[in-house]
Amino acid sequence: PDGSTLAFCYRGDIFTVPTKGGLAKQITTHTAYDTNPVWSPDGKSIAFNSDREGSMDVYLVHAEGGAPKRLTTHSRNEMLLDFLDNENVLFAAYGTPTTTDIQFPSTVYTQVYKVGVKANRPELYSELTMADVNVGPKGMVLYSDVKGYEDKWRKHHTSSITRDIWLYDGTDYKQLTTFNGEDREPVWAADGKGFYYLSEQDGTFNVYYRTLDDASTCKQLTQFKGNPVRYLNVSKTGVLSFSY
Description:
Blueprint: E1 5-10, E2 13-18, E3 25-26, E4 34-39, E5 45-50, E6 57-62, E7 69-70, E8 78-85, E9 88-93, E10 111-116, E11 123-126, E12 131-135, E13 141-144, E14 165-168, E15 173-175, E16 183-188, E17 194-199, E18 206-211, E19 219-220, E20 230-234, E21 240-243
Antiparallel strand pairs: 1-2, 2-3, 4-5, 5-6, 6-7, 8-9, 9-10, 10-11, 12-13, 13-14, 14-15, 16-17, 17-18, 18-19, 20-21
């Protein structure tokens, strides 16, 4: 979170490396597949996904390494999203919808749950499917919507089910982008007034920035052609990271 260190997955284990470059440090060592590392807001812990018990579960490990702690135990996959705060983690899972849920039951539409770092019983956070969740000021959440079955790795398409960026403030949902192609992977700017995200507005996934309240402030920050930018993230100090 302070922009000094990057966490990443390599060959099924979690590593960290200084953002200035240098020696990568192995944080997990297991024959299973460890992936999807997410920093706690205070930078002291890393949550990640692992299938070391058969299905994907959420685990927590100290940022310097050590024995990971298992946070979820369901037999189906539970996919890590983000830290809600230092004490709670959000993850996506195929749970049991309530009687008021109007989404079509399928393997596409997941619910969002909250679990404590002490591995307490998970609680329902949102029945609405949220992808690419990024928690910001006062617990407000940016996320990508999921409208249908289209493969998330598909490129260069426009359709009725391409993703858009939304804001959830704990009560209401607000759509922020309306491009008829793909907008995804939003991350908060340090001041909480804007956000960075990936979009195919120029035909290739690139990094964009805009404020929450004014779509006219949209600005393209990278100019890659052909191959997509993926895995966008940002530190509290404004250091952006992504893969290309």
